[in-house]
Amino acid sequence: MGSVARPAPARAAPAAAARPREPAVDPAELERLRQQARDAGMAEGRKAGLAQGHDQGYAAGLAAGKAAMEQQAAQLLATAASLPAALRRAEEDLAEAVVALALDLARQVIHRSLDARPELLVPVVQDLLRREPALQGEPRLLLHPLDAELVAGVLGAELRAAGWQVLPDDTVTRGGCLVRAGSGAHDATLETRWTRVSAALAGMPAA
């Protein structure tokens, strides 16, 4: 009897392809990478911020410097413009000081001259007699007691002829006199004469 063919044994199915194993992630390494990324971002941001701040600071500094220069220039121009007026004021002040000094020196010289030569008052009284002939009502000539004695001795006759009376007065400074009458008066004291001279010199135009 013939032999019965046996079915060939089935081949074993090929084993399923093995999946590759994912490498294990080290948490420390992952954190290091994250920190590195953060550091890089912060560095880039800081660099950009510094650049922007530098530009802004440069612009602000330039504007401040320009404003300061403009202010200094304006001050210099104002100072230059005021120089002529300041020079004029200085000249006027100097002129006034010179006049005051000259008057003071002249006053001292006059006083010393009158002390040494009291007869210098005589021409002053003679000038008053010529300029004030119309005084009515018993004109009185008030003089320092020492000057009154001197004038009465030199001009007594002339004064009596004009109807003038010589009176000593302690309040009158030596070298000056006062004339009083019913029709008027004339102040020829040294103080008043110096005041008139000072006022006249102060009103003189600059040379």
TrEMBL record:
A GO term from the CC aspect: bacterial-type flagellum
Entry GO MF terms: cytoskeletal motor activity
Biased composition annotated in UniProt, kind: Low complexity: 1-18
Matches recorded under Pfam families: FliH
Superkingdom as given in the UniProt entry: Bacteria
Keyword Chaperone in record: no
Region Disordered, residue ranges: 1-28
Domain Flagellar assembly protein FliH/Type III secretion system HrpE: 71-197
GO biological process: bacterial-type flagellum organization; bacterial-type flagellum-dependent cell motility; protein transport
Main localization of the protein described in the UniProt heading: cytoplasm
Classification via NCBIfam families: PRK05687.2-1
Job of this protein: Needed for flagellar regrowth and assembly.
Name of the protein in its database record: Flagellar assembly protein FliH
Organism whose genome encodes this protein: Ramlibacter lithotrophicus
